Amino acid sequence: MSGPADNAAKHHILSVLVENKPGVLARISGLFARRAFNIFSLAVSPTDDERVSRMTIVVDVESTSLEQVTKQLNKQINVIKINELHPTDAVERELMLVTVSAGADTRSQITELGAIFDAKIVDVGYDSMTLMAAGQPDQLDAMEDLLRPYGIEEIQRTGEIALPKLSRESTKLRSVKKPA
């Protein structure tokens, strides 16, 4: 299991705004494949503007320089804007669905473990259950490690999504003098 410091050293998070058009994802992923850039995770979703999508790309920088990646992305006609999000300046989350073997003797233990990570039970079968958790990637890694001894039957993780942290500086209010 790697911690946040390890992730920051090996990966960079890019928030890429692109035109919401057919083929954009294929062109960008093709670019990464042609240039042998390693994508650690990739998530794509629409934004509040239906003409624009946001790609959150976590790039392995041990094998490729970040400058080279951004230079190649900027050459793509459908790329509108690229922001690097440093982990200390970003809110990062990931979603995980995990189906775990859960007989009558272990079901309550798994439920309690899930509660520690704010996971929700989304499906229950006779001898297994599916939990959903959202959190920072290292938290989900920890949950996955703790569930493994019970027997993980299936697991799916979305990959990271991230946005810049909001400013914590207060805006100063100007006093308004009443006319005399």
Summing up helix and strand content along with how strands pair, one would put the structural category as: alpha+beta
Radius of gyration: 21 Å
Q: Looking at this structure, what is the CATH superfamily of the largest domain?
A: ACT domain
CATH class value of the largest domain: Alpha Beta
Looking at the structure, the CATH topology of the largest domain is: Alpha-Beta Plaits
CATH architecture of the largest domain: 2-Layer Sandwich
Multimerization status: single chain
Number of strands: 9
Most strands sheet? 5 strands, antiparallel
Q: What are the segments in which pLDDT stays under 50 over at least 5 consecutive residues? A: 1-7
Task: Count every helix, treating DSSP H or I runs of 4 or more residues as helices.
Answer: 5
Shape: extended
**Count of domain modules:** 2
Order of helices and strands: HEHEEHEEHEEHEE
Distance between the termini: 68 Å
Instruction: Report the mean per-residue pLDDT as an integer.
Output: 88
Helix amount: 25-40%
Beta-strand residue percentage: 35-45%
Describe the structure.
The protein is an alpha+beta fold. Helix content is 27%, strand content 38%. It is built from 5 helices and 9 strands; from the N terminus they run H-E-H-E-E-H-E-E-H-E-E-H-E-E. The protein has helices at 4-10, 24-34, 66-74, 107-116, 137-147; strands at residues 11-19, 39-46, 52-60, 79-85, 90-101, 120-124, 128-135, 152-157, 161-164. 22% of the residues are buried. Mean pLDDT is 88; it is low at 1-7.
